[in-house]
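Ticket #4471: structure output looks truncated?

Reporter: J.K.
Steps to reproduce: submitted the chain below (151 residues) through the standard prediction queue, then opened the result file.
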Amino acid sequence: MNAQSDERDGTAPVAEPGSVAGDVAEPERELGSRAPAFIKASKPLHLSWQVGVFAVGLAVVAAGVAMLVLPGPGWLVIFGGMAIWATEFVWAQLVLRWTRRKVTEAAQKALDPKVRRRNIILTVAGLVIVAALVGIYLWKFGLSLPWNISE
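Returned output as attached by the reporter:
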C-alpha cells in the first residue's frame, strides 16, 4: 500500500513555462502497480497477475511489431502494449513518460515557424521531383505499365 494520500490539495495545475496557451501540465501519476488491493494483498496472486499482464502486453507488442511490416497501425499498437505493461511495471511507466515527453517536444518543435517553413519547402521540392519523374516516364513510355514495356 502507498503511504501517500490520494486526496487532492485543492490547487489548480500550473502551466509549464514552454507550454502552449491553455495547455496545463497534468500531475504525473505515481509509479507502481495499479492492480486492485485484493490482488496486491496476496503475493502469489499478485505475481500471477503480473505474469498475465506481461503476457497480454507481450502479445499486443508482438502484434504491433508484426504490423510494422504488415498493414496496420504498428506503432500505435506497440504503444498500446506498453500502456498495458505500464499498468503493472515501473520500467514501462518510465518509458511511456519519456516517450510522451519526446512526442510533446517534437510537436512543439514542429509548430515553430522556421521548422514548418522548412518542412513545407522540402515537401514541395519532393512533390516537384516526383512529378518530374512521372512526366519523364509518361513522355518516354506513355501510359503503358512498366512490365508491358518491350525495349
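Triage note (M.O.): checked the attachment and the full C-alpha cell line is present. Residues 110 and 116 are 6 Å apart (CA to CA).
Status: closed, working as intended.
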